[in-house]
From TrEMBL:
This is YgjP-like metallopeptidase domain-containing protein. InterPro entries: UTP_pyrophosphatase-like (IPR053136), YgjP-like_metallopeptidase (IPR002725). It comes from the Bacteria. It comes from Sphaerotilus natans subsp. natans DSM 6575. Residues 46-259 form the YgjP-like metallopeptidase domain.
Amino acid sequence: MSPPAAAPDTAALAGCEALLRPEGMHHEIELGGIRLGYRLRRASRRTIGFAVGPAGLTVSVPRWVGQAQIDAALRHKSAWILRQLAAQGRRHQAHQDARVDWRDGAELPWLGAPLRLRLAPLLSRTLLQAARPLTQEPATLLLALPADTPPEALRAAVQRWLQRQARTLFEARIALHAGAMGVQIRQLRLSSARTRWGSASSDGSIRLNWRLIHFPVETIDYVVVHELAHLREMNHSPAFWAIVHAAMPDYEQRRRQLKDGVVPVFD
Ligand SMILES: [Zn+2]
């Protein structure tokens, strides 16, 4: 006798209307106690296919298949469908949690600790251009902006500030590690790619993602050392990792922090 299948973690679906009532849905079924809407596509194909994405479930069926057969196929596949939907729900939740509410008092991570945004419209005109942090608990970024600043304008101002911070910090960290590793860089550029933290080219220039500024300096240092090591080995060979390890014996731990970290959503 086989053990009962583990109940899918449907709690992750609670409140996820985009997944349970997908846009353009025209069919519904009850699976595992959940009323689930889905899109049905008729196509010239031989089998019934299921796809779960950020917009919920899509079922593709051959033109000749009737509703009873579709329902049976959905029930047969229900454990897989609910697992996929729950995974989508968790991804959606993580994304929501990382979303910054762009208004006075909002917080976002800066160098691995919370940074609170304060709108300070009475700051002098000079400070209007030079937003500066005050070291308190948590650190506060005073922005000389009116209280009714639209979220997009606040986001843009904070992003500019973070990018300036990133450049200054990255330059200092590169100077520190490049000296110790015996390499020289020609140029530093900031990037803002979603999925890439850094890159190096054989002409000696390095790109670092400004979003790294959300992480602790130890984590940023790993990316700096990684890219500097590429100036000696333009690959991920054992020789490359030996250079990284010599410069930073605990690099694996820092690398994990980078992978596990959640970066705020700026849009
Ligand atoms: Zn690399």
